[in-house]
Design brief:
Elements (H helix, E strand, L loop, with lengths): L1 H13 L7 H6 L1 E9 L3 E8 L4 E6 L9 H30 L3
Antiparallel strand pairs: 1-2, 2-3
Length: 100
Amino acid sequence: MESLKATEAASAAVATAPRVTLESMEAKIVSETYTMIDSILTLCTIKMANGFYVTGESAPASPANFNAELGRKFARENAIRQLWKLEGYALREKLHEAGN
């Protein structure tokens, strides 16, 4: 989550127009589910308020390095990064429709 917060802070520091924020995305999250596959792959499924789902995944190269807490953290960050692209597209579409 720290890398996402750093990205958010850097973006906020130079923003001069409407943008997607980490806070705005997190406010739309209804639920998160974590699934383990073969005791190495972590999947994070996030359900948004509008019913859309986004997923993220995490797995170490070596099973000996697996850490459940880090797996959940990295899978969630991956899901949020997927969501950020989609939210960016939605905002761009909204701005386009408004003539911006």
